[in-house]
């Protein structure tokens, strides 16, 4: 599975939105990992607002749904369990359904990326 890492301490970055669009265009299932949730950029919006703004930007740029996401911090460990659980859910599906095809199908159903508008 692919995680697209997004710095939550800064507002949505054009390059990150474009990267998400490229993944969607190529039908690569992905989840969002919002990083550095402990770090507040001085003078900038709170991390939660940056995260909401990023999700809204995806929707306004053509995504039919927001991919699964996890809020993380390498500094204090936030989101580690959630991230491992997301990966584990794919492993369980892989073993239960017996193959890479099933795991890819599950990832696709979770991510539901739609092609971004041109
Ligand atoms: N406060 C905080 N700093 C972090 C975190 N993750 C990485 N950093 C710091 O951010 C800087 C760049 O780290 P890097 O892992 O290259 O992250 P990048 O900025 O996404 O490329 C380094 O000084 C890291 O110690 C985090 O979760 N919280
Ligand atoms: Mg780096």
CATH class: Alpha Beta
Radius of gyration: 15 Å
The CA-CA distance between the termini, in Å, is: 25 Å
Structural class: alpha/beta
| Name given to the CATH architecture | 3-Layer(aba) Sandwich
Ligand species: guanosine-5'-diphosphate, magnesium ion
Provide the β-strand percentage band: 5-15%
Which runs of at least 5 residues are low in confidence (pLDDT < 50)? none
Strand order of the largest sheet: 1-2-3
The number of helical elements comes to 4
Number of domains: 1
Summarize the biggest pleated sheet. Answer: 3 strands, parallel
Layout of helices and strands, plus pairs?
Blueprint: E1 2-7, H1 14-25, E2 30-35, H2 47-60, E3 69-71, H3 80-97, H4 100-111
Parallel strand pairs: 1-2, 2-3
The protein binds guanosine-5'-diphosphate and magnesium ion.
The site of guanosine-5'-diphosphate (GDP) has 8 residues, from loops.
Could you give a short description of this structure?
This protein is of the alpha/beta class and 118 residues long. The chain is 47% helix and 13% strand.
Features:
about 120 residues; flat; binds magnesium ion; binds guanosine-5'-diphosphate; three-stranded parallel β-sheet; alpha/beta; Rossmann fold; 3 strands; 4 helices
Describe the structure.
The chain has a single domain (2-111), classed as 3-Layer(aba) Sandwich (Rossmann fold). Helices cover 47% and strands 13% of the residues. The chain has 4 helices and 3 strands. It has helices spanning 14-25, 47-60, 80-97, 100-111, and strands spanning 2-7, 30-35, 69-71. Strands 1-2-3 form a 3-stranded parallel sheet. Helix 3 crosses helix 4. The mean pLDDT is 87. The structure holds guanosine-5'-diphosphate and magnesium ion. Guanosine-5'-diphosphate binds next to loops.
């Amino acid at each position: 599975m692919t995680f697209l890492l997004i710095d939550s301490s800064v507002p949505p970055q054009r390059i990150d939105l474009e990267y998400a669009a490229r993944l969607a265009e190529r039908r690569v299932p992905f989840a969002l990992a919002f990083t550095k949730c402990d770090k507040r950029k001085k003078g900038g919006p709170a991390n939660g607002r940056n995260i909401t703004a990023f999700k809204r930007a995806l929707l306004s740029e053509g995504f039919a749904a927001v991919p699964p996401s996890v809020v993380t911090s390498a500094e204090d460990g936030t989101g580690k369990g959630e991230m491992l659980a997301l990966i584990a859910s794919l492993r369980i599906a892989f073993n239960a359904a017996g193959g890479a095809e099933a795991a890819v199908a599950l990832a696709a159903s979770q991510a539901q990326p739609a092609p971004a508008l041109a």
